[in-house]
Design brief:
transmembrane helix; 173 residues; transmembrane; globular; mainly alpha
Amino acid sequence: MQSITLLILGCLVGSLIKLADDISDKNLRINRLFAIPFGIIYGSLMGYMMIADIDAALIFGGISLGCLVSGKINSNGHYFGLAAILAIVFFNGIKLSPLVFMIAAFAFFDEMGEIIKISSMHLVFKYRLFLKIGLFLLFILDLIGFNGVLLLFAFDFAYILTGRLDSRLVHEI
């Protein structure tokens, strides 16, 4: 898949995941059922990207598995998102590398900041650096391509930006 396509779709997926998350978890004064279509759309896009690009398959497979194990897939929007990912991946017969488990571990450790309180690790958890540093190391070791690094940063940028916009929306309503 071309880098620009990954960049655009990565941003879209990051925003949709954050919207589904915030509709379910925050008081946006939106019916929580509206998280379901966002989940289906982001899950479908993630599934499509996973079958189209090996780096996307590794990263999104790892993130999904890490979030599932850490308990972060905890609302209807995310359940439907995961179902869409699994349906697309299984119908297309994707085979994931064992490397996905290493990426899942990085994603899992990113999510542990809310559970494990270690003051010296505050910045690492706050900025979710386990996955970023881990993927960068995998890139340096030539285990993932540049598209994977680009995809993660596009995804993360859109996720953070959408979260900030959602926070402003909550305060203005």
